[in-house]
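The pair is quoted verbatim as follows:
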Amino acid sequence: MHEIAVYDAYSTYGGGIVQSKRAEVRIEDSKILSDDWYTLTKYTFDLRRRDGEWQRQNREVYDRGNGATILLYNRQKRTVILTRQISLFPVFINGHDGYLIEAAAGLLDNMDPENRIKAEAEEETGYRVANVQKVFEAFMSPGSVTENCSFTPQNTNRATR
């Protein structure tokens, strides 16, 4: 059973302020299953449960690096700038035609999120953005993928094309 709760900035839990607690995990084994495009690793680990007992678990984790995305928008026109790109095989095998409409995005590839997203915005949309500010980060599929993506909005009135 999973514990589900919704918190806001003023929430309390158990009579105090909500504080993050790092999970107690002992990695017992790791085995690379694939290292073709990115790395798929099977981990065997022990997780300490709330009752203090240790539980053995296995997970396959796909490591493809972290990414960044930008949503270009024009508030006056009430529009956003998206791209149509081929993302052939993963979506194709799910019955899609292979082309996706998406916000400009890319993997960091050893760049910081701000510079990567400037490059991706120009490459994918033709817009040159100067000052970008990350508003949040999110894990894209935390049950199996390591990718943590930085999200940035940008008004196209402040961008050149």
